[in-house]
Specification:
By secondary structure, the protein is an alpha+beta fold. The chain folds into two domains: about 80 residues, 2-Layer Sandwich (Alpha-Beta Plaits), CATH 3.30.70; about 90 residues, 2-Layer Sandwich (Alpha-Beta Plaits), CATH 3.30.70. About 15% of the residues lie in helices and about 30% in strands. Strand 5 and strand 6 form a beta hairpin.
């Protein structure tokens, strides 16, 4: 079984929370029993999370050797110029080494994107814009660290695709079963 889930902002990417202050978890969304996340999204990131009950499928989705591209929409502070975007395309150096090159383009604010709760911080004197990034690796908080490295911190991050699987019209907290054919 393979499930596409639109993880809302502020939801832990696990079924239990052992912290002193309870937070929302995957258990709050009526997901089928026996499925587990194939990968993760940070607490402050939103969008597509795949869940499965098949260990081999989870491995194919998450193992870097299978190079499943992951596509994100990032709302960043400021307006990166062509030179800044080219740095992302070439790969930037982070504290854990250089990143692989990314596919990057500036995009208009998506009209289909739901409002975030809570909203991002807005500063009248500082513009923001959206960029679409596709990565072939998945380091901890990688998109946020990459955009910060070019001087444009991420304000909002939404994953919209993992390999052939897309978020499509799922709203935050919604899920749907997918065809679990092996991911190449």
């Amino acid at each position: 079984m393979l499930i596409a889930f639109n993880k809302p902002f502020g939801v832990l990417c696990q079924f239990t929370d052992r912290s002193q202050t309870p937070r929302a978890t995957l258990a709050d969304f009526g997901l089928p029993a026996g499925v587990y996340p194939a990968g993760r999204l940070d607490l402050d990131s939103e969008g597509l999370l795949l869940l499965t009950d098949e260990g081999a499928l989870a491995h194919r989705i998450t193992d870097p050797r299978h190079k499943q591209p992951k596509t994100y929409l990032a709302q960043v502070e400021g307006e990166p110029d062509d030179e800044a975007l080219e740095r992302l395309r070439q790969g930037v150096v982070l504290n854990d080494g250089p990143t692989r090159p990314a596919q990057v383009q500036r995009i208009a604010e998506p009209t289909w994107l739901w409002p975030r709760d809570p909203p991002i911080r807005v500063r009248k004197a500082v513009p923001d814009c959206f960029i679409a990034l596709t990565l072939s690796e998945g380091r901890n908080r990688q998109v946020r660290r990459m955009t910060a490295a070019i001087g444009h911190p991420t304000l909002r991050l939404v994953r919209v695709a993992i390999g052939p699987h897309r978020l499509d019209d799922l709203l935050p907290g919604q899920w749907r079963a997918l065809n679990a054919t092996p991911t190449p």
